[in-house]
Amino acid sequence: MKISIDVEATPEELRRFIGLPDLQPLQEEMLEAIRARMNEGRDGYDPLTLMRPFLPAAYQNMDAMQKLFWEALRQGGKASSGTGEQQEPGGGGKS
């Protein structure tokens, strides 16, 4: 059995219906803070330094973030191989 329901609603209407808070003022405040920081440091603008306060401590280090992405890709590759055997780097499998 297949049931399909079509709902025509704007994102604002759906947000209110579900009961989610209105984050528009918070978003605008954060964007204004980012704009102010960008304007203060135009000459030595560094996007990573700008975004550091908004990132969790674990992701403030780009090396840690890169390792996280590689680990996620590695885990995804194991899960999707379907054979249960680990692939050797370079494409060769176990003999």
What does the model show?
With 95 residues, this protein is mostly helical. The chain has a domain at 23-78. It contains 4 helices and no strands. The model has no long low-confidence stretch (mean pLDDT 75).
Beta-strand content estimate: under 5%
Helix content: 40-55%
**Uncertain residue ranges:** none
Written as H for each helix and E for each strand, in order along the chain, the element string is HHHH
The value of Rg in angstroms is: 23 Å
Which descriptor suits the 3D outline?
flat
How many strand elements? 0
Tally of helical runs: 4
Describe this protein with a few key phrases:
95 residues; mainly alpha; 53% helix; flat
Please specify the SSE layout and strand pairing.
Blueprint: H1 11-18, H2 24-40, H3 47-51, H4 62-81
What's this, in brief?
This protein has helices spanning 11-18, 24-40, 47-51, 62-81.
